[in-house]
Design a protein that fits this description.
Strand content: 25-35%
Strand order of the largest sheet: 4-5-6-11-12-15-18-19-20
CATH class: Alpha Beta
CATH superfamily: ApbE-like domains
Number of strands: 24
CATH topology: T-fold
Radius of gyration: 22 Å
CATH architecture: Roll
Structural class: alpha+beta
Number of helices: 8
Largest sheet: 9 strands, antiparallel
């Protein structure tokens, strides 16, 4: 059984969620026409009169995903239809990418991994797998493949450890049996060249036994690209927030009277509390994504050795088969939405100097590494986008997590906790 703890109201989330209407309405107030709330179920006012922030949250990919659009009188789409279409796409890809559960009438990643021989799959899944295989080697000049969708046999070992029945549950983390060196030092078939993609029959197979794929580390970036393509046809202002670790913006921020940019909070890594305050913010324009990989996001400790202070997080280094990375977190800013998760993971696992050189020499890519509160490093032009908060000032700014200018989630309030339980 897979347990996911979601701190549902760790901050007060300003997501007004209230009514259904089919079209935008103008109302007459004192003989002046004003744009009325287009949908009271989803929308609320902003700091700009006549502009409404409309949000819907969808649970998928084991996390909460929120799409927010900003509407004014010039928008002519049906909001409920827009949200329903986005939800349908997200849920569909969640099922297709699922490595641990089967669904009636769907050949998904779980089906592929559990089947001997070729499996015919949906065009959407075929395209996603092929895209990952073609683009996952972000630095071909280096022999190390730091992101690999065929790492599934090793990821499965860590997954089973993380969700073992022997785990002792805790509020901040679980203590679980850590895989032995003997187990991890086996020879695994994880060469992506051994994946057989048949375009004519839309099938996938493996040329060696005991292989599998895992799209979890690639999913959010790829889904962002899909939703981006859908939303951009409406020429609207939006934020797509997938699990708070992958945020994409589109259009101009019409809800901010002082700027057209969006401010995306950079979460301060913290292993010792439920704190979700921000240490800085990325100020970005349309089509930029802010994506974070961090050791603090999902981790366990050693059940069998209380003196082992190692943080066993979820980002596995293919070179060592153990959790990797030097910094507590790495956040990237990029216009390459589809590859954003791959880039973030690979940069997190690189040695810092190698990563810095890679980022500085890659177009439309910036990064910030958080080692501790006094050691925060940025790529060459990252300060064009990033504002750091002053730790020495007791400013209210430091207790807010920004998702779009003027949208705040008050941190560390801890109003409520709920458990979402899902069998895997």
């Amino acid at each position: 059984m897979k347990r996911i703890i979601i701190f549902f109201l760790i901050g007060l989330i300003s997501l007004g969620q209230l009514g259904l209407m089919d079209k935008n309405i103008m109302i007459d107030v004192n003989n002046d026409l004003l744009f009325a709330n287009p949908n009271e179920q989803y929308c609320e006012t902003t700091r700009v009169e006549g502009v409404f922030k409309c949000s819907k949250t969808i649970f998928a990919f084991d996390t909460s995903n929120t799409v927010t659009v900003y509407m004014d009188e010039f928008d002519n789409y049906v909001l409920e239809d827009l949200f329903n279409n986005i939800e349908t796409q997200i849920i569909e890809y969640d099922k297709l990418f699922d490595s641990y559960e089967s669904f009636d009438g769907i050949n998904n990643v779980y089906t592929i991994n559990e089947t001997d021989g070729p499996v015919v799959i949906d065009q959407k899944l075929f395209d996603a797998i092929q895209y990952a295989l073609i683009h996952q080697d972000i630095n071909p000049e280096n022999d190390d493949l730091l992101f690999n969708i065929v790492l599934e046999p090793i990821l499965a070992i860590w997954h089973d450890a993380r969700y073992s029945s022997e785990c002792s549950e805790g509020l901040l983390y679980d203590t679980c049996p850590i895989p032995s060196a003997e187990t991890l030092n086996q020879n695994f078939n994880t060469n992506p060249d051994d994946v057989i993609m048949d375009e004519d029959n839309l099938s996938i197979d493996f040329s060696k036994p005991n292989m599998g794929i895992d799209l979890g580390g690639f999913a959010k970036g790829y889904i962002s690209m899909i939703i981006q393509g859908y939303l951009n046809q409406f020429d609207i202002s939006y934020i797509l927030n997938l699990g708070a670790s992958n945020v994409l913006v589109g259009g101009e921020n019409i809800s901010n009277p002082n700027a057209t940019t969006f401010g995306i909070g950079l979460t301060e890594p913290d292993f010792n509390s439920l704190n979700t305050s921000a240490y800085g913010a990325a100020i970005i324009n349309s089509s930029y994504s802010v994506v974070t990989s961090g050791s603090y996001q999902r981790y366990i400790k050693n059940l069998d050795d209380p003196d082992d202070d190692t943080i066993y997080h979820h980002i596995i280094d293919p070179r060592t088969k153990y959790p990797g990375g030097e910094a507590l977190s790495v956040s990237i800013i990029t216009t390459n939405t589809a590859l954003s998760d791959i880039l973030s993971t690979a940069i997190f696992l690189m040695d810092y100097e190698e990563a810095l050189d890679y980022v500085n020499n890659t177009e439309d890519l910036e990064a910030i590494w958080y080692f501790n509160e006094t050691d925060i490093r940025m790529s060459e032009n990252a300060d064009d986008f990033i504002t750091l908060f002053d730790y020495e000032e007791e400013s209210e700014t430091n207790i807010y997590y920004l998702i779009g200018s003027g949208i705040f989630i008050a941190a560390a309030i801890g109003v409520g906790v709920f458990l979402y339980v899902r069998k895997k």
